[in-house]
Task: inverse folding
């Protein structure tokens, strides 16, 4: 199968997957703070929903390198956002540089 570009449909699927992943991250942190079956079940359900959006995005592009990198950057930004906003965690300057370099890598991979 030929590789396809990341289209708006694929980007929307990746964003939906990233949102579901972010929900999973939030629920996982809640589980870490207060372990119980409810938080665990909700977190797992969110991660399953994440995959429901991820798989068609990957099937449309058939390129793990670019599609996976875009998704990982979305997941990274979402995780950092959730940690900082909802759980008042801090991000070091070095981590900020890492996020910036990750974003730049998506641009370079998209141009390849």
Result:
């Amino acid at each position: 199968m030929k590789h396809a570009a990341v289209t708006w449909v694929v980007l929307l699927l990746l964003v939906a997957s990233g949102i579901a992943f972010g929900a999973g991250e939030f629920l996982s942190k809640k589980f870490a703070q207060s372990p119980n079956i409810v938080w665990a079940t909700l977190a797992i359900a969110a991660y399953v929903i994440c995959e429901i959006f991820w798989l068609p995005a990957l099937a449309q592009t058939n390129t793990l390198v670019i599609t996976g990198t875009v998704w990982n950057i979305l997941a990274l930004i979402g995780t950092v956002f959730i940690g900082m906003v909802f759980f008042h965690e801090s991000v070091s300057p070095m981590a900020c540089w890492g996020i910036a370099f990750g974003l730049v890598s998506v641009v370079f991979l998209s141009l390849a």
Notes: The chain has a mean pLDDT of 90.
